[in-house]
Amino acid sequence: MTEVEESESGTPSRRSLLGWGGAGLALGAVAAGGTVAAVRSGDDMDPAAAETGAAVAFHGAHQSGIATPVQDRLHFAAFDVQTDDRAEFVQMLKDWTAAARRMTAGKAVGDGAYGGLAEAPPDDTGEALGLKPSRLTLTIGFGPSLFKKFGLADQRPEALVELPQFAGENLDRNRSDGDLCIQACADDPQVAVHAIRNLARIGFGKVVIRWSQLGFGKTSSTTPDAQTPRNLMGFKDGTRNIAGTETARLKKYVWAEGPDWMSGGSYLVARRIRMHIETWDRTSLQEQEDIFGRDKGEGAPVGKAKERDKPFLKAMLPDAHVRLAHPDSNQGSTILRRGYSFTDGTDGLGRLEAGLFFLAYQKDVRDGFIRIQRHLATDALNEYIQHVGSAVFAVPPGVRDKDDWWGSTLFSKEA
To answer: By the 8 A CB rule, do 198 and 99 touch?
Structure first.
C-alpha cells in the first residue's frame, strides 16, 4: 500500500478453421445487439460511460487499462509459457489480440456460443451472452522469466528488474511471478472473468495460468474529480494518484521511453497485500488516524481541513504511512495506482483472507516502487499488513490498428 500522489475483418471462423491455435479451440464474448460505440480510454471519458456499459477503445499508443478510468472489478491472471516454439507463441499473441479486440468491443470471437457446428466446441463459453462491454480493458505484460525464452535475453529492458526482498514480506511463490500477465478490468465481474477464461482457453497447450486474483471495490482512481475510494481499512486511498488527463505527469512518471520496443509502454508491479483486519478493527480511531496520517472521515492530512489540502508531513508521526510514502520523502518518486480490494474466504483460523491487490504502473521500477517500498520499512501500517504475493512485468505499448498485435514491437525483431 502506498499513498501516491469493431468486428475485425478477416478473422477465421470456426467453420473455416475449427478455432485458433494448436488446440483447435477458441471462445469469446457475445454481447447483445451488435456494434457498441467505443469511447476514449483516457480520463476524459464521458462520465456516463460506466452507466451505459460503453466500450473502451482498444487501439492506441498506450494500452488501455493503465490511464483509463478505473473500473469497479478486476480479474488478474499470471501465466507460465509451456511451448518452446517461438512461432507458435507469436501466433497465440496474435490470436489473443484478435480476441481482446472483439471482447472489449462487446463482440463474439469466432462464431460465438451457439449456432455453429454441433460436432465442435463452441467458440464462446456463453456466460457473457447479453451483457454489455462494461468498459472492459485487457492489458498484457511480460515478466522477467519470459526473456529467458525464445532468444529474448538481449531484449530485456534494464528497468525490468527482479524485485528485492523487502522487510516483513512473506511471499507465497504460488501467488507470485509469471512469464506474462493479463489484467482484465470491467464494471461487470462476469465480463472480466469471461475475458480471462477466453484467453486461457485460446492459449491451451501454449500457456497455463500460474495464479489469478479477483478484485472488487477499486481502491484508487485516475479520475481525481470523482470521490476517492476507500480501502478495507476504511481510509481513502490514492488521493494523489496520477490522473489520466495529466499528460505531462504520465509522460514523466508512467510511460517508458526505451528500449525502442518498450517506448510508450510501462512497468507494472503487482503485490498481494494481506490485511490483518481483525486486529485493525480493535485499534482505536486515534491510532488508526495516526498510522495513516489522515483523518478517517474527510481524509484530510493531519492539521488540514480537506482531503486534497497539501499535507504538512512534519505534523505527522515519523512512521505515518502518508509521510513515508509521499513523493517529497522519496526523491519525487511517483507511481500510478490501480488497486482493488479482495476477500478470498478464511485462513482456517477464523480470520478473513482479505486485503489489497496492489497494481502500480511506472516509468522505471527502480525509481518507483522499489524506492518507495524500501522507505516504507518503518511504516506503522506494517503491523497490520503483510505482502504475500509479488510480480513485475514489462507492459508493451498499445496496439496501433487492426493489423497490429500485442508484443509486435518485441517479437517482430529477429531471434
So the answer is: yes
- d(Cα 214, Cα 75) in Å, to the nearest integer? 5
pLDDT in tens, 68-102: 999 999 999 999 999 999 999 999 999 999 999 99
Q: What is the dihedral of CA 155, 158, 163, 166, to 10 degrees?
A: 170
Q: Which three three-digit cell numbers place residue 50? A: 460506466
- 70 CB contacts (<8 Å, ≥6 apart)? 185, 218, 220, 221, 222, 223, 338
The DSSP-derived string for 72-130 is SEEEEEEEEE----HHHHHHHHHHHHHHHHHHHTT--STT-SSSS-TTS--SS-STTTT
* CA neighbours closer than 13 Å in the CB half-sphere of residue 293: 25
- Could you report the per-residue pLDDT of 114-123, keeping only the tens digit for each? 888 899 988 8
Region of residue 343 (phi > 0: left; psi between -120 and 50: alpha; otherwise: beta)? beta
Ranges of residues in the chain with a pLDDT under 50 are 2-37, 42-50
Cell 476477500 identifies what position?
A: 343
